[in-house]
Amino acid sequence: MELHDNEFTNGEITVTYEPKKCIHSEICARGLSEVFRTSVIPWIHLDGTESARIIEQVKKCPSGALGFCYNKELATVK
């Protein structure tokens, strides 16, 4: 799957980040520091925990800078 600079995936979900919207409240990092890391690049590491926890934290973003979508399953041809 091709990703753009501010898209991150773990195969199950894709998280998007819009830096121009971000108000730097750090709610994401304080709530889920194993995923939203302020001192490492890339700063979003979706392998840090399960998708359900990531989605819960993304929904708490006060500015709407973080978003997510479920990835479609890849069809296998037999």
Write the layout of secondary structure elements.
Elements: E1 7-9, E2 13-17, H1 27-31, H2 51-58, E3 66-70
Antiparallel strand pairs: 1-2, 2-3
How does this model look, in words?
By secondary structure, the chain is of the alpha+beta class. The chain has a single domain (7-70), classed as Alpha-Beta Plaits (2-Layer Sandwich). It has two helices and three strands. The chain has helices at residues 27-31, 51-58, and strands at 7-9, 13-17, 66-70. It has a three-stranded antiparallel β-sheet with strand order 1-2-3, with helices on one face. It is globular, with a radius of gyration of 13 Å. Residues 74-78 have low confidence and may be disordered.
Structural class, by secondary structure, is: alpha+beta
Q: Please write the CATH class name.
A: Alpha Beta
| Number of domains as seen in the coordinates | 1
Unreliable runs: 74-78
- β-sheet strand percentage: 15-25%
* Radius of gyration computed on alpha carbons: 13 Å
Give the helix level as a range of percent: 10-25%
Instruction: Tell me the number of helical segments per DSSP (H or I, 4 or more residues long).
Output: 2
Mean pLDDT across every amino acid position = 88
CATH topology: Alpha-Beta Plaits
In which order are the strands of the major sheet placed? Answer: 1-2-3
Backbone shape: globular
Describe the sheet with the most strands: 3 strands, antiparallel
Number of strands: 3
CATH architecture title: 2-Layer Sandwich
Order of helices and strands: EEHHE
**Distance between the terminal alpha carbons, to the nearest Å?**
21 Å
